[in-house]
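Weekly modeling sync, notes
Attendees: S.R. (lead), two postdocs, one rotation student

Agenda item 3: backlog of single-chain predictions. S.R. asked that every request posted to the team notebook include the full sequence so nobody has to chase files. The rotation student volunteered to paste the first one in as an example of the format we agreed on. Action items at the bottom.

Example entry:
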Amino acid sequence: MNPSELFDIWAPPASAWSKWAKPILFAEFSAVAPAGLDANPLPHLVLRADSNTALVVDLPSADSVKAGLASMEVGYRPVPLFNGNRGPLGVNIGTTSIVDNEPILAWLLTGASLLAQQDLPWDAPPAFLLDSRRQVQVTASPGRFDNRWMVFPQDFPSANFLRSKGISQAVLLQEDILRQPREDLAHVLRRWQEAGLSLFVTNLLRTDAPQPLSVGRPSRFRALWYVALAAMGLRRNSAGGFGSIVPQPSSGAG
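Predicted structure, as returned to the notebook:
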């Protein structure tokens, strides 16, 4: 199966949500082995898909993909929004990429097999998948492959589009239900909230109903220059997404 075929399984053209799926990691499947379900079973989700509910999964690394696949089993269509590159192969880039995407790739490969066997309706409600490590706070030393990334409002459907598809509420699945959403995601969810969508939050350990979520106003909310300013510290990749090698500092003439 080639990368294009894999991406089409995760983002079938007939699904209204596929236009938001990010293709960058699907182009980087070389030398990746699928994850083993026997040793790594999917989590159990208490949630059941509701045609009026979107799910936003903001969990670390492969946990996000696994939760997305678990949500598929209860009726959601997982939509991968991972937008950081894997990193160059066969090139000395120091220790590792800043964000290790290998576990995500392995589970996307395993997930393609599971999705191909699942008879999901094209209009199944979406489960948008994010890696909560996308903006990990580390020093980007020269020679490292800096593939940190962030989400922007245009990476998600607008509240108007969601409502046109019958979505009136969203559930955020994250590790700590007591904390606010990560700041980049807060820019998305606050817009949905102001447009009248009801928001809730839960995690993988809870067995009761999701709790109401009120998203505070994030810094620079709706500022015209927010996207340009926020992206200044990120490294765009010419192939799409985010990621490039941190250059060595230039030395002045002695």
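Discussion: group reviewed the output briefly. DSSP finds six helices and eight strands in the chain.
Action items: rotation student to repeat for the remaining queue; S.R. to check formatting next week.
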